[in-house]
């Protein structure tokens, strides 16, 4: 008799699984396919508690689908380009690949110990030339379609990391990575034209509703930020030595045009400088300096007092010819809409605050029944009818909007316009450890893409340490033998583009590469891709709610448009697992509340840690490690394991003659677990499993006994269901029960619906005191049900022989006595 030893199991089973290729899909179409994917890790150090939680959840899904008979693709790889490797290389005078691949090896060993049911033969790393060759190839296809382009533009610049940041990487005006205040710099940068896909990215979210967390969809919707309204052209009159100029505004409220009393341009936009008269130029300059020092958050705060300067110019309202003073202010953003607005203080609070600060007129044009905003200081935004608005008077707001647009269109001064908050994706990085942009700049030919057959453009291997330190230009610029090349078109001297790609590019298509990671003729095998895509269940943290998921959706749509895949959404279902906290707070160095995953695994075993992650809460909720009990999980696992040890009947025994009460619990657990798993209620499944283990133990100790076939049936069901959460214990149980490895492919046990109903009792039916029938009924049968069943009995009807009924006495569930009239 052995005792439960997680260490012995962890030493024994991984090799068996590897030899049997248990987690490699057969991929031959003989079984329906399912693709389950966890967001791939970044190789910083070893795995941590967060990985342990996320990958436990994804593995439950993969293992469950495998038990259900699907051919499951559950791959693993690494998102292995990125800044931390480069910083480590600078510090250690090394090449970033050394740090990266050493960490990957560490993490891979931990994943294997953690028994992720991954197909290791499909392992990929985005920093491998075999991978980034195809990232470059895809970039070229985007480029050919006009979806990758270069433009000179002010960009977010981190003075410490010396690199450009995407808007998304600027958090509260500071660099997401190092917290340094971000400044602006003008650079020639590569962009992906994601804005071309804004409508589709928004509309196709309908397909995802119900399968993705509502909160993620809401965040994407808000990020895309579709606003319906109009573009309206105002002419800023010639003045102060400057010529007249047409300036367009974006407004969602063209119905309020008659209520515009002033005009505002973004103070930090070039337009402000262009418009200002000489007289006001110095004031504007000074104001612009002040604005630059503010963070985006401060600028957009509605709490802050409104500031601005008059430009000395007037804009003419196209509908009524009124002259509106043009101001420059920071509450109007340079990079939203057109960077200029018509201000309607009566109906827009920001404009009203500004009007009150600078004593500008307020004119209500919508009668909403509320107090006059000029008096109350509160802009009115409700429904109402138009006033003070010429030909629009009397119209309700909903009709006035299209009417105003129609007037503008007739005049040629405006048109309906849909504005998006979404910006094009800035993908250039002036860093080393990323995918080189496959473009050559030739003095005579201009931008020349590197021919496909010359891909990949590999990173030079001789740059290391200080060579990689930020200098404001890409470190690649210093690698002269790498930079200077022959132009593929004219064969004259030319230079490689020295920027590398945002690592979000690498992660925007890795799920496609997993389908055929060793394919050499393209990014993926066209004969295979539609077999697996889209991913049926994607699992990852909510921190990727916007960028990664939006970019992956964009890539998938473009690749779909290239005719390369059928799917135009990459992830049919998304699960955001919660975080692992300690003491109610996220684990962090500064709080010193980090929990080391390796130590937990050493102490409690892999299975106990995995089970705890899953059992502690629904998968979407956070787990507070201070509140959980891996030792409780470990005790439960040993208890389950001992069931298998106790069973004395032989494998293959017919369960039919087994104890009915225990069989009923087993079959109910199997049926409930499947339903709960389909709804991602993993924690409840574990609770049910605990009940089944208790019931089985009771049957062994004080009921049917260890030799009863029902006990074997229960122990086998425990092993199969447990294999989703605690693969080592389950495999060991399966082995004790006399089955060959692996329990992972045992198949989900079928449940017998007849066994789901509880055992019956016998109800006696009497007519005039004589027993006329016996009915098998549920112990829960109601009086009414039992009365109906008794009266429906043929024997009873024969005994009544057409007589009416005086009374029926029912004592559910045992007795019915019928007294005839
Ligand atoms: C006149 C007006 C009257 C407006 C009114 C609103 C209410 P969303 O919905 O976010 O798209 N706006 C336009 N561009 C802006 C910019 N660059 N910076 C700051 N504000 C800007 O908002 C569109 C509205 O925000 C536009 O409609 C404009 O103000 C303002 F009763 O025009 B509105
Ligand atoms: Zn050339």
TrEMBL record:
<feature type="domain" description="Aminoacyl-tRNA synthetase class Ia">
    <location>
        <begin position="422"/>
        <end position="625"/>
    </location>
</feature>
<feature type="domain" description="Methionyl/Valyl/Leucyl/Isoleucyl-tRNA synthetase anticodon-binding">
    <location>
        <begin position="659"/>
        <end position="780"/>
    </location>
</feature>
<keyword id="KW-0547">Nucleotide-binding</keyword>
<keyword id="KW-0067">ATP-binding</keyword>
<feature type="domain" description="Methionyl/Leucyl tRNA synthetase">
    <location>
        <begin position="40"/>
        <end position="181"/>
    </location>
</feature>
<feature type="domain" description="Leucyl-tRNA synthetase editing">
    <location>
        <begin position="221"/>
        <end position="407"/>
    </location>
</feature>
<feature type="short sequence motif" description="'KMSKS' region">
    <location>
        <begin position="586"/>
        <end position="590"/>
    </location>
</feature>
<dbReference type="GO" id="GO:0004823">
    <property type="term" value="F:leucine-tRNA ligase activity"/>
</dbReference>
<dbReference type="InterPro" id="IPR014729">
    <property type="entry name" value="Rossmann-like_a/b/a_fold"/>
</dbReference>
<keyword id="KW-0436">Ligase</keyword>
<feature type="binding site">
    <location>
        <position position="589"/>
    </location>
    <ligand>
        <name>ATP</name>
    </ligand>
</feature>
<keyword id="KW-0030">Aminoacyl-tRNA synthetase</keyword>
<dbReference type="InterPro" id="IPR001412">
    <property type="entry name" value="aa-tRNA-synth_I_CS"/>
</dbReference>
<keyword id="KW-0648">Protein biosynthesis</keyword>
<feature type="short sequence motif" description="'HIGH' region">
    <location>
        <begin position="41"/>
        <end position="51"/>
    </location>
</feature>
<dbReference type="InterPro" id="IPR025709">
    <property type="entry name" value="Leu_tRNA-synth_edit"/>
</dbReference>
<dbReference type="InterPro" id="IPR002302">
    <property type="entry name" value="Leu-tRNA-ligase"/>
</dbReference>
<dbReference type="InterPro" id="IPR009008">
    <property type="entry name" value="Val/Leu/Ile-tRNA-synth_edit"/>
</dbReference>
<dbReference type="InterPro" id="IPR002300">
    <property type="entry name" value="aa-tRNA-synth_Ia"/>
</dbReference>
<dbReference type="Pfam" id="PF13603">
    <property type="entry name" value="tRNA-synt_1_2"/>
</dbReference>
<dbReference type="InterPro" id="IPR015413">
    <property type="entry name" value="Methionyl/Leucyl_tRNA_Synth"/>
</dbReference>
<dbReference type="InterPro" id="IPR013155">
    <property type="entry name" value="M/V/L/I-tRNA-synth_anticd-bd"/>
</dbReference>
<protein>
    <recommendedName>
        <fullName>Leucine--tRNA ligase</fullName>
        <ecNumber>6.1.1.4</ecNumber>
    </recommendedName>
</protein>
<keyword id="KW-0963">Cytoplasm</keyword>
<comment type="similarity">
    <text>Belongs to the class-I aminoacyl-tRNA synthetase family.</text>
</comment>
<dbReference type="InterPro" id="IPR009080">
    <property type="entry name" value="tRNAsynth_Ia_anticodon-bd"/>
</dbReference>
<dbReference type="Pfam" id="PF09334">
    <property type="entry name" value="tRNA-synt_1g"/>
</dbReference>
<dbReference type="Pfam" id="PF00133">
    <property type="entry name" value="tRNA-synt_1"/>
</dbReference>
<dbReference type="Pfam" id="PF08264">
    <property type="entry name" value="Anticodon_1"/>
</dbReference>
């Amino acid at each position: 008799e052995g005792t439960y030893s997680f260490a012995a199991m962890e030493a024994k089973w991984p090799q068996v699984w590897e030899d049997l290729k248990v987690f490699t899909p057969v991929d031959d179409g003989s079984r329906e396919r399912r693709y389950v994917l966890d967001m791939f890790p970044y190789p910083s150090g070893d795995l941590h508690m967060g990985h342990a939680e996320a990958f436990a959840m994804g593995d439950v899904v993969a293992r469950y689908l495998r038990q259900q008979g699907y051919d499951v693709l559950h791959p693993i790889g690494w998102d292995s380009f990125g800044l931390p490797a480069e910083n480590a290389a600078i510090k250690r005078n090394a090449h970033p690949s050394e740090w990266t691949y050493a960490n990957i090896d560490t993490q891979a060993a931990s994943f294997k110990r953690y028994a992720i049911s991954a197909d290791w033969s499909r392992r990929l790393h985005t920093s491998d030339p075999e991978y980034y060759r195809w990232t470059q190839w895809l970039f070229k296809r985007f480029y050919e379609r006009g979806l990758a382009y270069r433009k000179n533009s002010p960009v977010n610049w981190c003075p410490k990391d010396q690199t450009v940041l995407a808007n998304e990487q600027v958090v509260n005006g500071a660099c997401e990575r190092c917290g340094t205040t971000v400044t602006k710099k003008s650079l020639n940068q590569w962009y992906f034209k994601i804005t071309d896909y804004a409508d589709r990215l928004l509309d196709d979210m309908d397909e995802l509703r119900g399968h993705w967390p509502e909160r993620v969809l809401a965040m994407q919707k808000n990020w895309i930020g579709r606003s319906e309204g109009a573009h309206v052209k105002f002419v800023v009159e010639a003045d102060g030595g400057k010529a007249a100029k047409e300036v367009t505004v974006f407004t969602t409220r063209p119905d309020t045009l008659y209520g515009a009393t002033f005009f505002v341009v973004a103070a930090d936009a070039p337009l402000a400088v262009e418009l200002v008269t000489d007289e006001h130029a110095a004031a504007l300059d000074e104001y612009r300096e002040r604005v630059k020092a503010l963070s985006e958050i401060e600028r957009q705060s509605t709490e802050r007092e409104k500031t601005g300067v008059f430009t000395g110019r007037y804009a003419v309202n196209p509908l009524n010819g009124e002259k509106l003073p043009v101001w420059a202010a920071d509450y109007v953003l340079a990079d939203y809409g057109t960077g200029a607005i018509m201000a309607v203080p009566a109906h827009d609070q920001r404009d009203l605050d500004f009007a009150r600060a600078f004593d500008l007129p307020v004119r209500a044009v919508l009668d909403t029944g509320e107090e006059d905003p000029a008096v109350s200081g509160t802009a009115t935004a409700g429904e109402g009818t138009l006033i003070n608005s010429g030909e629009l008077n009397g119209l309700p707001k909903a009709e006035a909007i299209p009417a105003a647009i129609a007037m503008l269109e007739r005049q040629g001064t405006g048109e309906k316009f849909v504005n998006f908050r979404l910006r094009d994706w800035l993908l250039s990085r002036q860093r080393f450890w990323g995918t080189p942009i496959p473009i050559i700049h030739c003095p005579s030919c201009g931008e020349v893409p590197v021919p496909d057959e010359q891909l990949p453009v590999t990173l030079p291997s001789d740059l290391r340490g200080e060579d990689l330190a930020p200098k404001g230009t890409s470190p690649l610029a210093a690698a002269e033998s790498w930079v200077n090349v022959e132009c593929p078109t004219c064969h004259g001297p030319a230079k490689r583009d020295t920027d590398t790609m945002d690592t979000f590019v690498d992660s925007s298509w890795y799920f496609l590469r997993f389908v055929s990671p060793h394919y050499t003729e393209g990014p993926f095998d066209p004969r295979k891709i539609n077999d697996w895509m889209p991913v049926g269940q994607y699992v990852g943290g909510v921190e990727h709610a916007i960028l990664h998921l939006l970019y992956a959706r964009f890539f998938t749509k473009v690749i779909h448009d290239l005719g390369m895949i059928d799917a135009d959404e990459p992830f049919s279902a998304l699960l955001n697992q919660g975080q692992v906290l300690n003491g109610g707070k996220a684990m962090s160095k500064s709080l010193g509340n980090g929990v080391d995953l390796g130590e937990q695994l050493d102490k409690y075993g892999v299975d106990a840690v995995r089970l705890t992650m899953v059992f502690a809460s629904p998968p979407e909720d956070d787990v507070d490690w201070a509140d959980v009990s891996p030792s409780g999980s470990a005790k439960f696992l040993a208890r389950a394991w001992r069931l298998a040890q106790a069973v004395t009947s032989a494998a293959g025994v017919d369960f039919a003659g087994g104890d009915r009460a225990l069989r009923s619990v087993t079959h109910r657990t199997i049926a409930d677990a499947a339903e709960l798993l389909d709804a991602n209620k993993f924690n409840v499944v574990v609770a049910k499993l605990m009940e089944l283990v208790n019931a089985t133990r009771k049957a062994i100790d004080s009921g049917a006994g260890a030799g009863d076939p029902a006990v074997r049936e229960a122990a086998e069901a425990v092993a199969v269901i447990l294999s989703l959460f605690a693969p080592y214990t389950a495999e060991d149980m399966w082995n004790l029960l006399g089955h060959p490895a692996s329990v992972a492919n045992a198949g989900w046990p079928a449940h017998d619906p007849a066994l789901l109903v509880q055992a019956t009792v016998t109800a006696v039916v009497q007519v005039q005191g004589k027993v006329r029938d016996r009915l098998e009924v549920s112990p829960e049968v109601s009086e009414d049900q039992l009365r109906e069943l008794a009266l429906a009995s043929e024997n009873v009807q024969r005994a009544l022989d057409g007589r009416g009924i005086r009374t029926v006495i029912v004592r559910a569930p045992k007795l019915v006595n019928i007294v005839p009239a």
